[in-house]
Amino acid sequence: MSASVPAQPDAIDSTFGTVSAFPEPVEGPKIAARNVSVYYGEKRAIEDVSIDIPKSYVTAFIGPSGCGKSTFLRSINRMNDTIPGARVEGQILLDGEDIYRSGMDIVELRARVGMVFQKPNPFPKSIYENIAYGPRIHGMTNSRSELDGIVESSLQRAGLWDEVKDRLSDSGTALSGGQQQRLCIARAIAIDPEVILMDEPCSALDPIATARIEELIDELRGRYAIVIVTHSMQQAARVSQRTAFFHLGRIVEYGTTSDIFTNPREERTKDYITGRYG
Amino acid sequence: MSPAILTLLAFGLSLVGWLVARARARAFRLASPTGRTHSLPGFHAWYVGLWIAVPTLVFVLIWNGVSPVLIRHEVLATPAASSLPAFGFERQSLLSQAHAVATGAARAVFDPAAEAFVIPFRAAIFRYQVIGLVLTIVIAFAGGAHAFLRLRPDFAARTHVERAVMGLLLLASLVAILTTAGIMLSLIFETIRFFRLVSPTDFLLGLHWAPDPMSVGVPDGHQFGAIPLFWGTIYIGAVIAMVVAIPLGLMSAIYLTQYATHQVRSVVKPLLEILAGVPTVVYGYFAALTVAPKIRDFAQAVGINDASTESAMAAGLVMGVMIIPFVSSMADDAIAAVPNDMRNGSLALGATRAETIRRVLIPAALPGIVAGMMLAVSRAIGETMIVVMAAGATANLTVNPFKAMTTVTFQIVAMLTGEGSFDHPATLSAFALGMALFLVTLALNFIALRVVKRYREAYE
């Protein structure tokens, strides 16, 4: 990998331009992590991570494999709870509210913090039913026409409506990989979350589908707080305004994406983004 | 020479060939300038060994069938044979008595008339034993020589031996298939015999089952209506047993795959599988001695006065319990095969575990679960011991589960162990019943396997 990261200079420049034009957020952080450590049994995967994630930006987590970025992402909507032996210490605050406090309703948390996975995972149901799944279990609608409305608007926001509007009853698993991933994004949007977590959402997709998802992320920015884990530094540079560099379970450096990529403070960050390791 | 001795001889000669060939191949190796041969000495050894053993064993097998016929022919060609009855039971009896004495299986003949054949038999047996022995040795040497003469440093013994190994494996896998075909054939012939005596419409559509094994003359087709048996089989095996087994088996599979901790699973799962290993006759006792009386008492307590001690309910309930591990383990596999991503996707949308199971996991695993149920049904309707002990013998066409009922399997046992002669229609009806059962279970298994196969393709 060459020293200059940007593969598409135009896109990067415009993104960076936007970032520098943003004022620092005046409201408090959407998500605030304080001294978070995550253990898998005896093994500590995340060590003492503190980070403020803003509301209207895309935040990227980058770092070499096994650095804990996905683990940290999964602790934001408590998906780590599904792994036997996983344990979280410290505080993660969502709008100032500790999500690990006792009595926290995980169902409500996950309705507010949606997630898109590495591999597209549509349910083996129709496209319509895939989107309607979340609104149904949360009792968000009172009538079929309301549900139809949510399905349509979610698919539209995910940029999939025009491709599937005539075959909503086809199986979601029959779509192409990129369409499946946009279906999963639409599914997450359908329950109107405040935060969307994306765990390497493009790693199973070809470059064209990837570009489409990246466009989509850009369109969704501002409406949702988006946190994306990615292996591709170009992708982080293209879609995010904030970047956190993880290494060996810690955050090495966190700042605006333009700073991280053009003017890193830490030697390790520089080594990683110039491709010296990872 | 008995076949056993000839077989041992074949193996012994084969071992000798094996050793000689290996020694020769080693000599090639030492003599060759590169110190290499095409195949390792072991392959040469096996090549020669197989060329001795296989033809010889095939010969022994054939000889074992042919030589008794030849011996008999020779005995019948002797002058003494003219005194034999021309055909029939007596002729057979005399010959087999003489044969038994000649081989030493019997001390003396019952019928003095047989005495005359003992000497010819002894002579013929001896002659053919010598012929058999000589032929065995000749074939072994011919095979060995054929193989041995082809050994050269560049001989591709490895290829030939590999091919022989493949043939052996193919043969092994054919055994089960050929057995199934054999079962089919034997059932078909006896079934045809039965249907010559009783019309298929009487059998398949008749509502009355009461064959009399002692009846003589033209059989009464109206005694052979199998509908009550089919109904009893379906009611006990596919209705009552499944009402028990499917919910319990499915729920235990869900618990084991989704809720149980690793420790609980590692204890409960083997325990459940032990249930599948309990002999069905033990379930039979349990059904007949413990469950059936309780069910009768219960039925009488709720006002069903004609409840009998043996009941479809007792047999069905216990059979259901017996099938639980079967359903559970199939459902367990099907649910475990649903990608974890699917489950996480649902949980990440804020679905609870129960919602995820009901709305995502079960629908995704449904083909596998359905296939498991079909296999369970096919096992239940083929089950014999429990119904023999607990369901009763009366062919009742009723939906009252507290009445005695009888099943296809029960009647097969009853007809075959009855007092009728073998060619009596009552006895033969067992084969027609067996055929019906065989076809139904075969169809169920076939459909289930097709469903499972299609389902696997969907996730891989």
TrEMBL record, chain A:
A GO biological-process term: phosphate ion transmembrane transport
Q: Which domain of life is it from?
A: Bacteria
* Location of the ABC transporter domain: 31-273
Show the GO MF annotations: ATP binding; ATP hydrolysis activity; phosphate transmembrane transporter activity
Q: Which SMART domains does the UniProt entry name for this protein? A: AAA
Q: Does the keyword Metal-binding apply?
A: no
Protein name, please?
Answer: Phosphate ABC transporter permease
- What lineage is this protein's organism placed in? Bacteria, Pseudomonadati, Pseudomonadota, Alphaproteobacteria, Sphingomonadales
From TrEMBL, chain B:
GO CC terms on record? plasma membrane
Pfam families on file? BPD_transp_1 (PF00528), DUF3708 (PF12501)
**Keywords attached to this entry:** Cell inner membrane, Cell membrane, Membrane, Phosphate transport, Transmembrane, Transmembrane helix, Transport
Primary location group: membrane
- Where does the secretion signal sit in this chain? none
Subcellular location as annotated: Cell inner membrane; Cell membrane
Where in the numbering of this chain does the ABC transmembrane type-1 domain appear? 231-448
The entry's family comment says: Belongs to the binding-protein-dependent transport system permease family. CysTW subfamily.
Its recorded name reads: Phosphate transport system permease protein
Q: How does it sit in the membrane?
A: Multi-pass membrane protein
Repeat listed as a keyword: no
What this chain does, per the entry, is described as: Part of the binding-protein-dependent transport system for phosphate; probably responsible for the translocation of the substrate across the membrane.
Name any one GO molecular function: phosphate transmembrane transporter activity
